[in-house]
Amino acid sequence: MKFAKSHEWVKVEGEIGTVGISDHAQNELTEIVFVELPQVGKILKAGDPSCVVESVKSASDAFTPVGGEVIEINEAVVDDPAMINNDAEGEGWFFKIKLTDLSELDSLMTKEEYQANL
């Protein structure tokens, strides 16, 4: 699992990345009540806004840590955003992306590096 400074994570298997927000981001947002995910087929560049996350406190954009094509979204978090509150770095994932450039992963941080920069 790799992390962006903007508090998103990506877990890569082959050329497919699963993307979500960090536990830290979820804790800062407090109770997430709504999430708007990108459409399947959308092409994103690293750093592009990809999702809207609304909590009882505020609304924020989530950004994609790596570029590629969205191939799947997590419909379960759309129906039940509380999944993100309970497991932001697991079952609360947002979307899967087919990576266009695996070298973009080199600019991301390990979990230890990410936590050291909080």
CATH homologous superfamily assignment: RNA polymerase II/Efflux pump adaptor protein, barrel-sandwich hybrid domain
Question: What is the quaternary state of this protein?
Answer: single chain
The residue ranges in which pLDDT falls below 50 over 5 or more consecutive positions are none
Query: If strands are numbered along the chain, what order do they take across the biggest sheet?
Result: 1-2-3-9-8-5
CATH fold-level assignment: OB fold (Dihydrolipoamide Acetyltransferase, E2P)
Give the strand tally. 9
Structural class: alpha+beta
Can you give the helix content as a percent range?
Answer: 10-25%
Question: Could you provide a short overview of the structure?
Answer:
The chain is of the alpha+beta class.
Helix-strand layout with pairing:
Layout: E1 2-3, E2 8-13, E3 16-21, H1 23-29, E4 32-36, E5 43-44, E6 49-55, E7 59-63, E8 68-73, H2 75-79, H3 82-86, E9 95-99, H4 111-116
Antiparallel strand pairs: 1-2, 2-3, 3-9, 4-6, 5-8, 6-7, 8-9
